[in-house]
Design goal:
CATH class of the largest domain: Mainly Alpha
Number of helices: 15
Strand content: under 5%
Largest sheet: 2 strands, antiparallel
Radius of gyration: 18 Å
Shape: globular
Number of strands: 2
Distance between the termini: 19 Å
Strand order of the largest sheet: 1-2
CATH topology of the largest domain: Endonuclease III, domain 1
CATH architecture of the largest domain: Orthogonal Bundle
């Protein structure tokens, strides 16, 4: 039986309130996905970065490699394409998804339709004409994008697209408004850490693949609500907590996160904060076969 462990969520939130902000600042600044957005913004401009970040986030699922590698591949390909219009981006994504990506090779028919739906929408045109138009109201972007894609606000790909637009705002130096209340994108890494931290608990000694799959589907609302409790207790928005969880998730397997492999000595990661947060995130381990 899966249930929210409110005590654990409040405990994690308390630790993050003390240690999370400086740690997340460093992790976000060195997030490979933010670096990918900076490549697009530098080479093609913030207009292209805003639209392509949302479009690519909508198809960033069922990858055959790491998300970090896929976003860097996409950024370098967009930069090389010199895309400078909505039509250019539409042509780029159709070609890229057909035969240009090493990492995005599954369910391509559905993904190309998703990109077309977004890029042909009034919302894409708004972002093209005024790229920073939603920087002060990310919750409105969540609602508008969900309507365009015929999904629910808070769905995984929708809130991930909002997060990547937030990264565009950071890369382009835009002011960002209120970002509390946007759910965390419940992908595999987030659901894994939700269970290793025991903020959602099923009393199992380790976290299996089946546990993660169950939390991603049948019990997704438990994960979303548990992280909402952490958000309130820590006063750190879920859209920022996602970077912490997503980037540190490899520690569950004893692996160095991608953000550390660039040049760990160059990162001013507060060691005490990292240790305190990691203790709370990884109370139990994945089962050996996970």
């Amino acid at each position: 039986m899966y249930r929210i462990n409110t005590g654990r969520a409040l405990r994690l939130g308390s630790v993050l309130k003390r240690h999370g902000e400086p740690l997340i600042d460093v992790l976000e600044q060195n997030d490979p996905q933010l670096r990918a957005i900076r490549i697009i913004a530098t080479s093609n401009g913030c207009r292209v970065a805003a639209v392509s970040a949302v479009a690519n986030a909508l198809v960033s699922y069922q990858l055959v490699g790491r998300g970090e590698d896929y976003w860097m591949e996409t950024a370098q390909s967009i930069a090389a394409s010199k895309a400078g219009s909505l039509r250019d981006l539409a042509e780029f994504f159709q070609s890229f998804l057909s035969y240009g990506s090493r990492y995005n090779r599954l369910a391509l028919g559905a993904k190309k339709k998703r990109v077309t739906r977004f890029l042909s929408s009034q919302l894409a045109l708004e972002l093209w004409e005024k790229p920073d138009s939603y920087a002060m109201n990310l919750r409105l972007l969540d609602e508008r994008l969900a309507r365009v894609m015929r999904q629910e606000p808070g769905d995984k790909t929708i809130v991930f697209a909002v997060k990547m637009y937030y990264y565009v705002a950071r890369a382009c130096g835009w002011s960002v408004g209120e970002i509390y209340g946007i759910p965390i994108p419940c992908d595999r890494r987030v659901c894994l850490v939700t269970l290793t931290s025991r903020i959602v608990d099923n009393k199992a000694p380790c976290v299996s693949r089946g546990d993660v799959a169950a939390l991603m589907s049948r019990y997704k609302r438990l994960a979303i609500e548990a992280w909402r409790i952490v958000e309130e207790a820590s006063r750190i928005p879920c859209i920022r907590l996602d970077a912490l969880v997503w980037l540190l998730a490899p520690l569950a397997y004893g692996k160095d996160p991608a953000v550390f492999t660039r040049d760990a000595r160059a990162l001013t990661i507060p060691a005490d904060s990292l240790a305190a947060v990691a203790r709370e995130l990884f109370l139990r381990k994945p089962c050996r076969a996970t």
